[in-house]
Amino acid sequence: MTMLERFEHYKTSVKEIDDDHYELFEKLDEVHSHAKEFKRNPELFRESLKQLRNILFDHFEHEEKVMLEKNYKHTNYHKMEHNELRTRMSRILDMNPSSLYYVTTILDELEVVIVKHIDDWDIPSEKNRGVTVAG
Questions:
Q1: pLDDT at residue 130 above 50?
Q2: pLDDT band at 48 (very low <50, low <70, confident <90, very high)
Q3: Superfamily grouping for domain 14-114
Q4: pLDDT at 33
Q5: What residues does each domain of the chain span?
Q6: Residue 75 in contact with residue 130, Cβ under 8 Å?
Q7: How far apart are CA 115 and CA 6, in angstroms?
Q8: What is the mean pLDDT of the segment spanning 43-59?
Q9: Residues of 108-122 as b/e, b for ≥16 C-beta within 10 angstroms?
Q10: Cβ-contact 22, 64 below 8 angstroms
Q11: CB–CB of 55/23 below 8 Å?
Q12: Which pLDDT score, from 0 to 100, does residue 109 have?
């Protein structure tokens, strides 16, 4: 199942954030597709990772702006989480994969960095630490 096929599960009810997440999932699917072609074209995989990083970092900035505008609780904690994920994403890019083992490791780590973050922090729910509207 592709990330886009799973997208409905990760909706936040904030359209502009969902639009960002959709773009992230779309790029994640592309990264997975390029991973399958790694042996023939490793540079394509590396380039798609860099593009994913840029989209992710832009999303973090946008999301933080939206949280401030909408007076979300826990904005500072969410920003700290974003900073940690920026560091993890930078480490992923530093791996510079040379084998399929590293590609698999990178794909697993991306799942944690992006999907788990959305599930744990971005989706409003009483059962998680995600941001909820103040008031």
A1: no
A2: very high
A3: Hemerythrin-like (1.20.120.50)
A4: 94
A5: 14-114
A6: no
A7: 10
A8: 94
A9: eebeebbbebbeebb
A10: no
A11: yes
A12: 87
